[in-house]
Design brief:
mainly alpha; 184 residues; 3 strands; three-stranded mixed beta sheet; single chain
């Protein structure tokens, strides 16, 4: 029984079209009873712009194994941004001041360009790019590039069963990326 491992490999390599074809084939070849195959297909379908089909497969995965899989929490982007803003307000004044020149952006997912040099999964939930605060004082021209923290909304939603979990995971992700900016 093909459980979609080849399809998921294509997903991890940012080849979402091949991932979808392989995962659909895996479901047809006997993986229809495998919740992980449905989950991976759902994530891939959503990434390929097929949100309604994705919801169907998230529901199937959750029905087949409700302890391991669930239908992701979805919140509007403006609410997601408001949660980030509240998390930033909860930082100490010193850390907030250190973030004055760091852009915090919300994207649904990372692009292949975001991860071109990092070899990270397309499912990462946040990414700090640019030089850390400690690197800004060097003569290297790269050290003067703008710093940015990207928070990936859809990927965070894949990790959360409830809105409370979402709020906590956004906070953790934001603090983690701020740690990279601070050179930790």
């Amino acid at each position: 029984e093909d459980t979609g491992g080849i399809g998921w490999g294509h997903f991890e390599l940012f080849d979402f079209a091949r991932a979808e074809r392989a995962l659909v084939a895996a479901v047809k070849a006997g993986g229809r009873h495998n919740p992980a195959t449905h989950h991976y297909l759902a994530v891939t379908l959503e990434r390929n712009g097929r949100a309604r089909q994705a919801r169907k497969h998230f529901r199937i995965a959750a029905r087949l194994d409700p302890e391991a899989f669930f239908v992701p929490v979805r919140i509007p982007e403006d609410e997601f941004v408001a949660i980030i803003e509240r998390s930033l307000e909860g930082l100490t004044p010193e850390i907030r001041a250190a973030l004055d020149n760091v852009a915090v952006v919300v994207e649904p997912w990372p692009t292949s360009a975001d991860l071109e040099y990092t070899q990270l999964s397309p499912l990462i939930v946040g990414l700090f790019s640019g030089p850390s605060r400690d690197q800004r004082n060097t003569e290297d021209p790269w050290s003067h590039m703008p710093a940015q923290i990207a928070i990936y909304q859809r990927n965070l939603e894949y990790t959360c069963r409830t809105l409370d979990e979402m709020v906590e995971q956004i906070r953790i992700t934001l603090w983690h990326e701020i740690g990279h900016w601070l050179g930790l």
